[in-house]
Amino acid sequence: MRGSQARAGLYAGQQVSPADMRATVGRFVSIRCATAIIVAIITEITSESLPGSDRYYACASLDLLGEIYGDPQRQRFRRGVASYPAIDDPIALISNHELRTIYAPKGLDHINIGALQQDPSVAAYIDVEEMLNKHFAVLGSTGVGKSSGVSLLLNEILKARPQLRIFLLDVHNEYGRCFGDHALVLNPRNLKLPFWLFNFEEIVDVLFGGRPGVPEELEILAEVIPLAKGLYTQYGSGDRQGFKRLDPRNNSYAADTPVPYRLVDLISLIDERMGRLENKLSRIVYHKLISRIEMVRNDPRYAFMFDNANVGGDTMAEVISHLFRLPANGRPMTVMQLAGFPAEVVDSVVSVLCRMAFEFGLWSDGISPLLFVCEEAHRYASADRNIGFGPTRKAVSRIAKEGRKYGVYLGLVTQRPAELDATIISQCSTLFTMRLANDRDQSLLRSAVSDAAANLLSFVPSLGTREVLAFGEGVALPTRLRFKDVPTHQLPRSESTISSTPVVDSSRDAHFINTIIERWRGATSHRDQPNDGVATRPTPRSFEAPMLQPSLGLDPDRFSLLKKPLR
Asked: CATH number of the domain at 123-184+315-483, out of 3.20.110.10, 3.40.50.300, 3.30.1130.10, 3.20.20.450?
């Protein structure tokens, strides 16, 4: 015996029961000591010969995990070992009664997620309080039942914590139907996320389509955005003398202050500065910036940001209430479907949502707890600092490191844990690991779990569908279990079901092709935005030619510069 490890032997010729013959790697055993029953797990089995003899015996390496104590009628389990076993203490496979003692729920705050692989008659329970307060992660390759496992966990959490709000980033639009009437489904067609809620880095990412910004244009934006915010405040207070009275030295707003401003004011400020320039070459930078803003503003794919961009109105309270379900009104969960957003803006949108979730928890002192679940987390918090959008990684990292102090909890879901920022995943104290074949992913897991649990990771490549290795604070012991069956209506599935058998004979149905073309065109043309929270498919509409716009999309009566013919 050494520290938390021990070795047990079975001499050849000794009477062995059929149950003992099943003692193999990964099985729990019990060692009966004088004051308690030590619970251990078999990590290795070898056959060794006795010195000076041709007799052999089986030898097992054990990791000591915890102990069952108390009188037989009121036994309890606790992690750690207070009294160590001695030589010749009897050892046996753990009994059904002892397993039930270990995994018995300690209160109402436990959820049943499946059954033990060692004994399917014993239910596997998770401590919701421990799992949420210290964050959790679900890891597994594609096709192992990861999405259905996430649906199971979140539905059970909703039952156990009906007051908890849940926000799920749905990357592939597959969770929209999993939570029934308990969830509000948001997408670009019914989301209202005003552009002025984006901080400086995020709005730059939007304007430049995910590419690095032009330094000269960034310098202009950094100066005029705070002025536009101050100008809006002047209008709100009834002072309509115009932006010329606004002194930057007296402006109390920063570019990141979440207060409204209007795009028309922003462009006016840029144009006013451009009018002061005598060098025509310098004006090109201002022209390009105005053109860039107008191009994004007029792109129908960005309507969720720029609708009413020139009308104004401080809707921050309404946006937060709608996004984070305050009040819940019977729908404590939000499913944010990301597949319909322009690829260039997805990172910025995720950054805004993560940042707002944390900031609201911070400034509300955690009065309304929120679970933020990030699906495909490696896309937004990559281990490679040169990949992805820095503010998004920073926002996710901030929740991971500090969120629990303010009632903002994090759930990570990924198929490539090795590509996820190690600092972020290290903050997750409960891990649900499904089948992973990649060596780098397994190496990361070994560094993230305790020595006692690390020996179980050799099972990861061979786990079956819906089989899970659960580690950490949320489970009584490192456990191999199987997720229970998920009802059909809670199974994740893409909103577009693809079949190898065509539903219609598209070669004979011209109307079918025309409908597809209309939907195709409709995705990048203006359409009415529904205000309810029901996920619907886009309604096909006739294709209309856009109205002719003046150069740069500006009002020619307002900007006389654009009236001048080009020479």
From this structure: 3.40.50.300
Q: How far is Cα 351 from Cα 395, in angstroms, rounded to an integer?
A: 6
Q: Would you give the DSSP letter of residue 2? A: B
Q: What is the C-alpha separation between 310 and 558, in angstroms, rounded? A: 15
pTM, two decimal places: 0.82
Q: What is the pLDDT of residue 397?
A: 94
468-510: pLDDT as tens digits:
999 888 998 888 899 999 999 999 987 654 444 455 555 556 6
Fill in the DSSP letter of residue 413: E
Q: Residues 176, 326: contact at Cβ < 8 Å?
A: no
Residue 522 has a pLDDT of: 65
Report the percent of the chain where pLDDT is more than 70: 79
Cα 291-297-298 angle, rounded to 5 deg: 90
**Strand, coil or helix: what is 314?**
coil
DSSP 17-68: -HHHHT--TT-EEEEE-SS-EEEEEEEEEEEEEPTTSS-EEEEEEEEEEEEE
Q: What is the pLDDT of residue 250?
A: 60
What would the pLDDT profile of 243-287 be if each residue is shown by its tens digit? 455 555 566 788 888 889 999 999 999 998 888 876 677 789 999
Which DSSP helix (H) or strand (E) runs through 559?
none
pLDDT at position 170 over 90: yes
Q: What type of residue sits at position 26?
A: G
CA distance 500 to 305: 37
Q: What confidence tens digit (pLDDT) does each residue in 58-97 have?
A: 788 888 888 998 887 788 898 888 888 888 888 888 899 9
Nearest CA to 135 out of 318, 397, 338, 453 is that of 397
Tell me which residue of 26, 64, 24, 84 sits closest to 451, measured CA to CA: 64
15: number of Cβ within 10 Å: 5
Taken in order 220, 222, 223, 228, the sign of the CA dihedral is positive
Distance CA 314, CA 258 (A): 10
**Mean per-residue pLDDT over the chain, rounded:** 82
Domain ranges of the chain: 5-104, 123-184+315-483, 197-307
Q: CA triplet 409, 183, 379: central angle to 5 degrees?
A: 50
The overall longest dimension of the chain from CA atoms, in Å, is 106
The one-letter amino acid code at 38 reads: I
Task: Name every residue whose Cβ is closer than 8 Å to that of residue 266 and which is 6 or more positions away in sequence.
Answer: 224, 225, 228, 293
How many whole angstroms separate alpha carbon 213 and alpha carbon 222?
12
Is the dihedral angle over the CA atoms 299, 300, 301, 304 positive or is it negative? positive
- The phi, psi pair for 552, rounded to 5°, reads 70, 5
Q: Does residue 136 sit in helix, strand or coil?
A: strand
CA-to-CA distance for 298 and 548, rounded, in angstroms? 12
Dihedral sign for Cα 319, 322, 328, 333, please.
negative
- Judged by average pLDDT, the poorest of 124-133, 180-189, 298-307, 513-522 is 513-522
Contacts 24+ apart (CB under 8 A), 500-503: none
**In terms of DSSP H, where are the helices of 336-471?**
346-363, 390-402, 422-425, 439-448, 451-454
